[in-house]
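User: Here's a structure from my thesis project, written as structure tokens. My advisor, Dr. K., wants to see whether a designed sequence matches the one we expressed. Can you design one independently, without my sequence as a hint?
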């Protein structure tokens, strides 16, 4: 009896999986924008662009550094 309940729960969760990948959740799934990061994340905030806050901080620092580096090494512009 407990066994049939378990298998029914397993069947339900398996049936829900395709809907998770193709249904309402799918448009919210985004690839992380951090350089070198291969993770995806569910977009819960319009300005979120990274899989974690730590990645976002690092990506911002890298972008800031890159911009200043370019400005320094290009004196005639
Ligand atoms: Zn990431």
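Assistant: Designed independently from the structure alone:
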């Amino acid at each position: 009896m407990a066994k049939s309940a378990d298998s029914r729960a397993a069947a339900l969760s398996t049936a829900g999986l395709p809907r998770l990948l193709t249904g309402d959740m799918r448009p919210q799934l985004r690839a992380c924008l951090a350089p070198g990061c291969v993770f995806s994340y569910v977009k819960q905030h319009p300005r979120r662009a990274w899989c974690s806050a730590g990645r976002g901080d690092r990506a911002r620092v890298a972008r800031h550094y890159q911009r200043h580096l370019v400005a320094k090494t290009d004196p005639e512009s």
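When you compare it with your expressed construct, this may help: The helical segments are 2-22, 53-73.
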